[in-house]
Design a protein that fits this description.
The protein has 11 helices and 14 strands. With about 350 residues, the chain is of the alpha/beta class. The strands form 2 sheets. The chain has a 7-stranded parallel sheet with strand order 3-2-1-4-5-7-6, with helices on both faces. A 7-stranded mixed sheet has the order 9-10-8-11-14-13-12. Helix 6 links the parallel strand 6 and strand 7. Helix 1 packs across helix 11. The longest helix is centred in the middle third of the chain and has 15 residues. The relative contact order is 0.14.
Amino acid sequence: MMRESMSATPIKVAIAGVTAYTGQEAARLIAGHPAFTLVSASSDAMAGRRVNALLPDLGDDGDALIVGHGDAAMAAKDHCAELAFLATPPKRCAQLSAELIAAGIRVVDLSGAHRLKDLDAHLAAYGTPRESPNEALYGLSEWAEAQAMRDASLVANPGGFPCAALLALIPLQRAGLVGKRLIVDAKCGTTGAGRSAKLSLLHSELYDDVHSDRVGCPRHTPEIVQGLKEHGAHEIALTFAAHLLPVARGILCTIYIDLPFECDAIESGKRAQQCLREAYTNAPFIRILERPEDVHLSDVIRTNRCLIGVSGDPHGQRLVLTSALDNLVKGGAGQAIQNANLMCGFEATLGLELGAGGRP
């Protein structure tokens, strides 16, 4: 499915898990996309209603009927969908993706069902074995090979934390600036914890507080390590820690890279910044700032941008990087749209350059 011109009939799109935060964000972005049109959606909680009952601001663009998850694949086929975004839990996504691909519908999976290639790591991360080989293309858009994206029938959207970490680290890994030991200290808004009712996510519990949420996460740690190994890393000892912020959305990562004592930390910081600038010269959604201190969550919220800053710390003999993105856009649905654009042969920025959905 590759469209050579914008005059072609819009590509029909389905969303499984439309009531999830990333599913809702995907519906909003599709409504504003000049080449996509939403024809089908699924949610057990809202089956029988229209998408605009969930998202009234979509108007006629939200007229698609919502079905139960058990009917998601059939509804997508009945409405001649060519592309599907999956935002249900991983086990259901794995089942749906197989059905959709068998029907000739290409899939962007926003869950973790297809992110990890190692079967043991997948089992530890998600609690269930993967029933089929992982033939997904990992969709870190800025580092995915263009032809592979155009040929892919299944793309695994990265997790928000790994996306923020890997966009900062991959250029330095390729330049030989990442050693064997790393610390990723990450902070995220509450939408990163999903939409399920939890006592810990109540406003009264979170207000005026910040606390550690996950240390050594079995989902994010192996995904980051896997991404670095695909770009030349061999042995990586990674400490990952996530903290919950009393804000709705956004991820901010501070990353610490040990430097050999013979290295000049300040000069290493300058070299790292140059590597980042060169790597992302033609990447419209990535902005390299002068210092880690210049990276703010408020500058990425509701955009598809990722901001990155780096400097050398001579006191700790480390490189310090900070990256920020919106977990629902660049770390979720925006990245999924970016991947879908590349799958269809469109510019990566199509449908992401205007409005609240993510100016470059």
